[in-house]
Amino acid sequence: QSALTQPPSASGSPGQSVTISCTGTNSDVGGYNFVSWYQQYPGKAPKLMIYEVTKRPSGVPDRFSGSKSGNTASLTVSGLQAEDEADYYCSSCAGSNNLVFGGGTKLTVL
Amino acid sequence: EVQLVESGGGLVQPGGSLRLSCAASGFAFTAYWMNWVRQAPGKGLEWVAKIKADGSEKYHVDSVKGRFTISRDNAKNSLYLQMNSLRAEDSAVYYCARGQYGFGYWGLGTLVTVSS
């Protein structure tokens, strides 16, 4: 049950696009279409932004999109806004009995 | 409105026990998998345990197996986490979260501190 690998930090200027990667193995990310992405502000609970690799919950702006290729999933934030500055975590089903998170990426809007 | 409200956290000595509770409202509790997820201070998220809607299946992360037990009372719309043999590394904010793989709703969390 090793954590998924995310870059510790990412950044972009307002209006730009940023992509955050989430690398696992064929026992988690590569083996299932159950990758989710969460946004978390300091001191707050996480918020689901993407589920099942590409799906957006109601209310999440379409600037947020998800994808997957092999053992790596990605979250892309287009048209960066100041309010997007937060920590982002990926997660994946890792077999029927387990779920694993990534280490988190701090997104800075320059 | 969906609400998840955790309680039961606090300061406990190493080797001690705590029971966390999560009161659910605003949705059909009996229809959903429920989870506990923790976050140590300044660290990332860690999935701890999950339980099927009817309570028939329970799974725990390896690091808490044999020490923590997830349970639920569907008549009371409540989720629990019994934590025994607590260690310093169990110190974290514990969140309850709804869902099987994607967690669409989270509580605000309850802080557990294991220290002598």
Quick structural summary:
The complex is a heterodimer of chains A (110) and B (116). Chain A has strands spanning 9-12, 18-23, 35-40, 47-50, 64-69, 72-77, 86-93, 99-101, 105-109. The radius of gyration of chain A is 13 Å and the shape is globular.
Secondary-structure blueprint:
The complex is a heterodimer of chains A (110) and B (116).
Chain A: E1 9-12, E2 18-23, E3 35-40, E4 47-50, E5 64-69, E6 72-77, E7 86-93, E8 99-101, E9 105-109
Chain B: E1 3-7, E2 10-12, E3 18-25, E4 34-39, E5 45-51, E6 58-60, E7 68-73, E8 78-83, E9 92-98, E10 105-106, E11 110-114
Parallel strand pairs in B: 2-11
Antiparallel strand pairs in B: 1-3, 3-8, 4-5, 4-9, 5-6, 7-8, 9-10, 9-11
Give a structural overview.
The complex is a heterodimer of chains A (110) and B (116). Chain A has strands spanning 9-12, 18-23, 35-40, 47-50, 64-69, 72-77, 86-93, 99-101, 105-109. With 110 residues, chain A is mainly beta. In chain A, β5 and β6 form a beta hairpin. The termini of chain A are far apart. The model of chain A has no long low-confidence stretch (mean pLDDT 95). In chain B, the strands form two sheets. In chain B, strands 2, 4, 5, 6, 9, 10 and 11 form a seven-stranded mixed beta sheet that branches. In chain B, strands 1-3-8-7 form a four-stranded antiparallel beta sheet, with no helix packed on it. The N and C termini of chain B lie far apart (40 Å). In chain B, β4 (34-39) and β5 form a beta hairpin. With 116 residues, chain B is mainly beta. The A-B interface holds A 1, 3, 34, 36, 38, 40, 45-48, 51-52, 57, 89, 91, 93, 97-104 and B 35, 37, 44-47, 50, 59, 61-62, 95, 101-104, 106-109.
